[in-house]
Amino acid sequence: MKQLLVFLTLFVFSSSVFAQETKKTNSKSRKEQKRDKINAQIKAEEEGVIAYRKHFAFGVKLISDGYGVSFEKGYSKSVKKTTLFQLEISERKHQKEIKQSIANTLASSPFIYGKINFFYPVKLGVQKQFLLGNKSNKNGVSVTANIGGGLALGLLRPYELQVEKNGELVYVRYESEDSLLFKSGNIQGGPGLGRGWNHLKLNPGLYVKPGLRFDYGRYNDLLAAIEVGVAAEFYSKKVPQMFDNKQKQFFFSAYFTVLFGKRK
Fold this sequence. Notes:
Blueprint: H1 2-46, E1 54-63, E2 66-76, E3 81-92, E4 99-100, E5 111-112, E6 117-133, E7 142-158, E8 161-165, E9 168-172, H2 179-184, E10 186-189, E11 201-215, E12 222-239, E13 248-263
Antiparallel strand pairs: 1-2, 1-13, 2-3, 3-6, 4-5, 6-7, 7-11, 8-9, 8-10, 11-12, 12-13
């Protein structure tokens, strides 16, 4: 009986050791396969063969006067050149915006005194991407220069304030019949997310956008990159954001974008 127990113990122990060694071997094999694949892609690109011909990416963007999101579809024509089709939606804020709250009131929403419109630029454009420096291995970073532009459509959503009028709470806009209350009325709160969309105005324009992109996953199916650059936008009409402040048609800003997506 004791011999049987010893035999079973040795059998279980050896099986466990064998399984662990097999797992390590398989894991090492997968790493080697991945490394060989990357090395093959690097060698192929040195000979002018494209590793991935297209990609899509989502971006979260911080702008010097706002924030936004983006979607991108890219098509590579060669190792060093890619065409990017982009859609961006953002919100621009005026530098003098100051959010205020009604004292001793929790029910009302905060407001920005003097704000006339929410300003949402929607941009549809094309960029050309040029490879400046390629990564030499999977731990490196490739650097590309992006330049392009396209159409910009400025969406202006009226900023509505909640004020007291004849003992009742009403919403007024800067361009409404009760516009005097917008400036000097008894303000009780700001607009909700659903206010002002039925009075939306459009302001078309153009934009250009140069930038530098740092790609941390060039030889990987998953795309991971950051981009920094500047953008210039010009609209057909001046954009009213705050009253008693100069209205602008031309906007210049810097941006920082985090991109993530997939290559094919």
